[in-house]
């Protein structure tokens, strides 16, 4: 079983933003730590890349899902 939770690091301790299930009491847990800011920075970089490299479509372009699968 796994859960993804957020925590705040303060005074040498991780403080969870949400309580774990009662069944987790006394269990040893593995913790993987990554900064939320890192993920947000990667997302921001991707969106900036997309803005710099736009895909221009003609005014008459129309997406037709049925046409794709008619092969």
Q: What do these coordinates show?
A:
The longest helix is centred in the middle third of the chain and has 17 residues, at 36-52. The model has no long low-confidence stretch (mean pLDDT 85). A hairpin with a 2-residue loop joins strand 1 (7-10) and strand 2 (13-16). The chain is elongated and about 60 Å long. It has a two-stranded antiparallel sheet with strand order 1-2. The chain has helices at residues 36-52, 65-69; strands spanning 7-10, 13-16. It is α+β, with helices and mostly antiparallel strands and 71 residues long. It has one domain (7-69). It has 2 helices and 2 strands, in the order E-E-H-H.
Task: List its salient traits.
alpha+beta; 71 residues; 2 helices; 31% helix; 2 strands; two-stranded antiparallel ribbon; elongated
SSE topology sketch:
Elements: E1 7-10, E2 13-16, H1 36-52, H2 65-69
Antiparallel strand pairs: 1-2
Elements, N to C (H/E): EEHH
Number of domains: 1
Gross morphology is: elongated
Tally of individual helices: 2
Q: How far apart lie the N and C ends? A: 42 Å
Compute the average pLDDT. 85
Which regions contain 5 or more consecutive residues with pLDDT less than 50? none
Fraction of residues in β-strands: 5-15%
* Cα radius of gyration in angstroms: 22 Å
Numbering strands along the chain, what is their spatial order in the largest sheet? Answer: 1-2
Structural class: alpha+beta
Please provide the count of β strands: 2
What can be said about the biggest beta sheet? 2 strands, antiparallel
Can you give the helix content as a percent range? 25-40%
């Amino acid at each position: 079983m796994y859960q993804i939770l957020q925590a705040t690091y303060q005074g040498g301790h991780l403080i969870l933003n949400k309580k774990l299930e009662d069944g987790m009491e006394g269990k040893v847990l593995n913790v993987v730590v990554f900064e939320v800011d890192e993920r947000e920075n990667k997302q921001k970089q991707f969106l900036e890349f997309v803005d710099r490299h736009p895909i221009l479509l003609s005014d008459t372009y129309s997406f037709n899902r049925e046409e794709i699968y008619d092969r």
